[in-house]
Specification:
Length: 80
C-alpha cells in the first residue's frame, strides 16, 4: 500500500520543483525588465533593444531572408 503514497510524494515533489522554477523565471523576468529600464534611463530605446535581442537569436540565414522579405514589402508599399 505504499505505492499510492510514493506516487503522491513524487507528484508533490514535481509540483514543488515547477513552482520554484516558475518563481525563478519571474525573478529573471523582473531582472530583464530592470535592465531595459536602466537602458531607457541612459537614453537607449528599449523597444529597439528588444528587437535586436530577437534578431540576434535568429540564424544568420533566417535573419537575412526576413530582412529581404521586409525590404520587398516596404518597397511594394512605397515606404522605402
Amino acid at each position: 500500500m505504499t505505492e499510492p503514497n510514493v506516487a503522491a510524494d513524487q507528484l508533490r515533489l514535481l509540483i514543488e520543483r515547477i513552482e520554484r522554477l516558475e518563481e525563478e523565471k519571474k525573478g529573471i523576468g523582473d531582472d530583464i525588465k530592470d535592465v531595459y529600464l536602466e537602458a531607457k534611463a541612459t537614453g537607449y530605446d528599449p523597444k529597439i533593444m528588444r528587437q535586436i535581442v530577437r534578431l540576434r537569436k535568429m540564424q544568420p540565414h533566417d535573419r537575412q531572408e526576413m530582412e529581404a522579405i521586409l525590404q520587398t514589402y516596404l518597397s511594394a508599399l512605397g515606404m522605402e
